[in-house]
Amino acid sequence: MDALEIARWQFGITTVYHFMMVPLTIGLGLVVAIIQTAWHRTGKPEYLRMTKFWGKLFLINFIMGVATGIVQEFQFGMAWSEYSRFVGDVFGAPLALEALLAFFVESTFLGLWIFGWKQLKPAVHLACLWIAVIGSVFSAYFIIVANSWMQHPVGVEMIDGRPVMTDAWAVFTNNTALVAVPHTLFGALAVAGAFLLGIAWYHLWRRRRDGVDTIGADGKVIPGEAATIAGRDRADHTVWLRSLRIGAVVAMISFAGTAVTGDLQGKLMFEQQPMKMAAAEAACHDGTGFSVLSIGNIGSQNCDDIVAVIEVPGILSFLAKGDFTTEVKGVNTLLPEYKENYGTHLPDNPIYGERAGQEIEYLPVMEVTYWGFRMMIGFGGLAAMAAVVALWLTRKGTVPESPWLMRLAVFGILAPFGANAAGWIFTEMGRQPFVVAPNPDPSGIDQVFMFTAAAVSPGVSAGELIASLVTLTAVYAVLLVVEVKLLVKYIRGGVVSAMPELAHAPADENEDETPGDKGGPGKPAGDVLAFAY
After folding, report:
1. Which keywords annotate this record (predicted)?
2. How many Cβ atoms sit within 10 Å of the Cβ of residue 195?
């Protein structure tokens, strides 16, 4: 058993799992804030229902994200102590700001939003949600600043073998971070858009299946009411149709945003980590062609085993340089350069353990980089295409009766999750064998890098890491079951699951609100804790 490989598996499993919650929290939080703003400005009851329902799901996911995120700090201390020592002087500032400022603001004002429905004035209550959402965006920014420094070290000097931050402004305005932040935010909105679309489609389909909504002679929907089912009124139809169309629009806008920021990110990667992007394109030789499909022997790290089946000339040059003629260095050209700059073998140093003196493999696992890059784009494109189709199919006010289309819409929620996960796996594994990547550009800071083999804790055995891996995976599996059961329960329950007062109020009074002192939407009555429950 190899302690380094087990530590990497543990980090990968827990981090990707945690990141499943992050984009939904950020994206859904922004959408809920926009919907509540619409309710505050218009007073329309359907916006209140939307705010309560989607807000309920947002809170469930937020709580699970906090629980799974705690493990990350535990991991750094247990399995990656050498890495923590190396980056500590740089990471101290952004991570402290994330915990003490961004997360503190986010959690505090989210608490005020949860429990302030009756106690706070509507404008103040809405402001609490916006402050919490902005806090989550800043939280993401500080985390990405730290991660981007690992991709492109700036603002430091090497003192006694460790990077010491000398220019905080350079660290916080790292061009890698300034591109990665909007790319991540658009990815989060893509998740939220698909989430709204899939769930709203399911509820519209259920209304058709149960005969609540019918189709008129002109092909347009006739919203109905089910007197025996709480919340199944005409406003309920508006909730789901409006949610679906908002989700579709958000999904399309976010795909365009990820495409633009992803292109900028790709151009930076070609400059800062040329081997990563060459491996992502299976570009073994210098050239301009983009590989649409390449095949090779599974597990082989030999470029001679890879054959480009479909290649489009000029596209790789455009991705790297913005033109169609500049030749881009391939793996076979980059390997000698990496060996010359950073050595052919790991140093004979006890910090590397049994790996000391081993030959360095500078080519990342190409199956991961090549297909991870394409899965990221492919899943994102599928979600955007589904959004366009959904807008067309619902132009007459409801969804088709087909249960298969409903299932596709629901399972389509997973597509942007897959795109986000594939993108992060590509970003992190494509950096190998470095945990802190060096700057190949002569204008960058020289000799600031760290091999992954030197980052693992020397005092932790493979057996201890196996035990922690099994334990954490089991805990995460339990949390996954809890989150899925809670989400499924409240999704199936519809708006009534977030507004139990609808099940007890007459149809003409079921919004349970009283007029505000100054007009506009008022404060919902009832137990203040009901929304949290």
Report:
1. Cell membrane, Electron transport, Heme, Iron, Membrane, Metal-binding, Transmembrane, Transmembrane helix, Transport
2. 29
- The strand ranges marked E within 307-390 are 307-312
Residue 62 corresponds to which tokens in the numbers above? 């937020």
54-69: pLDDT as tens digits: 999 999 999 888 888 8
Peptide bond into 163 cis (omega under 30): no
Give the span between the Cα atoms of 88 and 83, in whole angstroms: 8
Distance CA 325, CA 109 (A): 52
Query: What's phi and psi for 213, nearest 5 deg?
Result: -105, 140
CA 271/CA 261 separation, integer angstroms = 16
Contact yes or no for 188/24 (Cβ under 8 A): yes
Sign of the Cα torsion 180, 104, 69, 34 reads negative
Q: Is 364 within 8 Å of 276 (Cβ atoms)?
A: yes
Angle at 347 between CA 344 and CA 348, to 5 degrees: 130
CB atoms closer than 10 angstroms to residue 34: 15
**Phi-psi group of 447: left, alpha or beta (phi > 0 → left; psi -120 to 50 → alpha; rest → beta):** left
CA distance 108 to 123: 17
Chain mean pLDDT for the chain: 86
- Helices vs. strands in the chain: H and E counts, helices first: 16, 10
Q: Residue 178 and residue 150: Cα distance in Å, rounded?
A: 14
CB-hemisphere CA count at 13 Å for 176? 26
CA torsion angle for 337, 342, 345, 348 (degrees, to 10)? 170
| Segment 422-436, tens digit of pLDDT | 999 999 999 999 999
The residues, any chain, with a CB within 8 Å of residue 424's CB and separated by 6 or more, are 15, 16, 19
Give pLDDT, residue 144.
Answer: 94
DSSP state of 100: I
Q: Distance between CA atoms of 328 and 514, rounded to whole angstroms? A: 66
Categorize the per-residue pLDDT at 445 as very low, low, confident or very high, splitting at 50, 70 and 90.
Answer: low
CA angle 332, 335, 337 (to 5 degrees): 120
The tokens for 157 are: 């000097």
- Residues forming a β-bridge with 159: 162
Q: Which residue has the tokens 């705690």?
A: 70
Cα gap 126→113, rounded to integer Å = 8
CA distance linking residue 334 with residue 207, whole number of Å: 59
Taking the C-alpha atoms of residue 485 and residue 208, their distance in angstroms, rounded to an integer, is: 25
